[in-house]
Amino acid sequence: MGKIEIENMEFYAYHGHYREEQIVGNKFLVDLAIETDLEPAARSDDLRDAVNYQQAYMIVEREMKQRSHLMEHIAGRILDALYREMKGIVRATVKVSKMNPPVGGRVERVSVTMTR
Q1: For the chain, first and last CA: distance in Å?
Q2: What residues pair up with 115 in beta bridges, in sequence order?
Q3: Which among 61, 55, 59, 73 has a CA at the least distance from the CA of 29?
Q4: b or e along 71-102 (b: 16 or more beta carbons within 10 Å of the residue's beta carbon)?
Q5: For 3, phi and psi rounded to 5 degrees?
Q6: Catalytic site residue 95?
Q7: Which end of the chain, N or C, is less packed with Cβ atoms under 10 Å?
Q8: Residue 63 has what pLDDT?
Q9: How many helices and strands, by DSSP H and E, does the chain display?
Q10: If we measure between CA atoms, which residue out of 36, 21, 15 comes closest to residue 86?
Q11: Residues 27, 65, 87, 98: which is the catalytic one?
């Protein structure tokens, strides 16, 4: 077993509960960790034996383009799509962070982490 991690994927998106967030948008960071059996790819040096992290990135990018009110919804959609479209995932963890959230004070980020 092993883990593939894609860290600090940056997206500008229009997610949020408040109407202003849906109009103005905000910067989001996404971290993804995929647990999988790395031995076949380690032996063969063949992409067909690996979980393709470029495909995983493209799935995250597509899901980040779909508007949501809640980060929990975004994280759940990302996990649903990863399991639906990719083979070899044993466990996946996604962390979605909203930078400078509108909470009434100075906050660097708010994050939601979900694992399946």
Answers
A1: 16
A2: 93
A3: 61
A4: bebbbbbbbebbeeebebbeebbbbbbbeebe
A5: -140, 135
A6: no
A7: N
A8: 98
A9: 4, 4
A10: 36
A11: 98
**Joined tokens for residue 35:** 């647990």
CA angle 25, 81, 42 (to 5 degrees): 115
**How large is the C-alpha radius of gyration of the chain?**
16
For the record, the structure tokens of 14 come out as 């229009």
Query: CA 42, CA 12: separation in Å to the nearest integer?
Result: 35
Distances, alpha carbon 67 to alpha carbons 12, 91, 114, in Å: 11, 25, 18
How confident is the model over 57-114, as pLDDT tens digits?
999 999 999 999 999 999 999 999 999 999 999 999 999 999 999 899 999 999 999 9
- Residues 2-34 pLDDT 10s: 999 999 999 999 999 989 999 999 999 999 999
